[in-house]
Amino acid sequence: MSKPFQAIRGMNDILPGESAQWQRLEATVREVLAAYGYGEIRLPLVEKTELFTRSIGEVTDIVEKEMYTFADRNGDSLTLRPEGTAGCARACLEHGLLHHQTQRLWYAGPMFRYEKPQKGRYRQFHQIGVEAYGMAGPDIDAELIALTARLWRRLGIRDVTLQLNSLGSSAARAAYRERLVAYFTARRAELDEDSQRRLTTNPLRILDSKNSALRGVLADAPALLDHLDPEAQTHFDELRALLDAAGIVYEINPRLVRGLDYYSKTVFEWVTDALGAQGTICAGGRYDGLLEQLGGPATPGVGFAMGLERLVALLATTDPSAAESAANPHVYLIRVGDAAQRDGLALAERLRDQLPELRLRMHCGGGGFKAQFRRADHSGAHYALILGDDEMASGRVALKPLRAAQGEQITLPREQVAVHLRAVLDLTA
Ligand code: HAM
Questions:
Q1: Is 280 a pocket residue for ligand 1 (Cβ < 6 Å)?
Q2: Fewest 10 Å CB contacts: which of 215, 246, 252, 351?
Q3: Does residue 83 have its Cβ closer than 6 Å to ligand 1?
């Protein structure tokens, strides 16, 4: 027999045992976003390649070496989206969502990057992204950051740090870039191969290098924050004042430059030590030039995206069991004998009508009491509801607690089962 197929490297299945945690995360994010007035936008997974080269930047790692790009049957160059900001901006321009109005939007779904897979870094990964358009002041930057801080609190995530920086206007950044190139050129011999290459392509990214051998040369490099234009400086000062007033703690990280070219002014990342090397769970910033660059009117924009695989991994370190038990069935229905098979299905359907919240798993596939009880235990259910020959003869149903401290087995008339379950399971319906 040949070996069964396997998924593509870096592209993961999310199995039923894991999906409860994902659903809890997604539901909480949706609730918080709705509370702040953000509306969902659903975007295609595939866009024209040029959208990404123009927005993310020709000489970024993403565009240079990580995109899944292919020619469709027409010969058009298309790309599986490596991120959502470009597609969201494209959609807003295409549908005129930015004419004399502001927008607060979010999207969720898979993104694709041909990166070297490792823990927390995948080739297909999932983001929830949030974008706000038409608001130039730092108040919206602060709102987005406050929203993320609230989300971590709601999820019970602690030990995350907010890192903050400003990249200034593009003109100020260009001037700074020249100073930086001059500085690194003078100390070229101390740079590693990657950084030497970046000296001509994307010198700011050298600041982001994780190579500890570069620590000395990086420490003495001119800091972008000391070369901000006055407008960006004011924006940054006001943002800091807003965050301080809201009690949101941050660290200024002058080396935070981000790997996408569209940013200006504010950039931020939420990082944790709990996940090893891939510790950034959420990242974003302001991109006031992007919409114009994509052919639209000059429109300020700011947003972020969080990596769901990393958040799920982080949640598993805080409370591994909570989400899983929330998805276990309340009741496992055991049916033994032909008549019980038939009546059991009808009973299950009636209970579902009466108790929409009830999670009831009906045993299917036959087998005796022993085998069915084994499955019931294995399911994590709170109760087994039992229909056998005795119950069929008496017109009653047995209810057996499967967990300690839930009392004794009882029998009930069929028509009282719903009322009883509602009470013992504390269901609202
Ligand atoms: P990004 O920093 O490239 O930004 O990605 C945002 C987050 O997605 C990261 O912080 C990380 O949690 C997650 N992520 C990125 N790559 C991977 C990967 N290969 N495997 C697992 N998780 C990953 C953006 O994508 C921007 N579009 C964010 C943004 C929105 N800026 C403004 N608006």
A1: yes
A2: 215
A3: yes
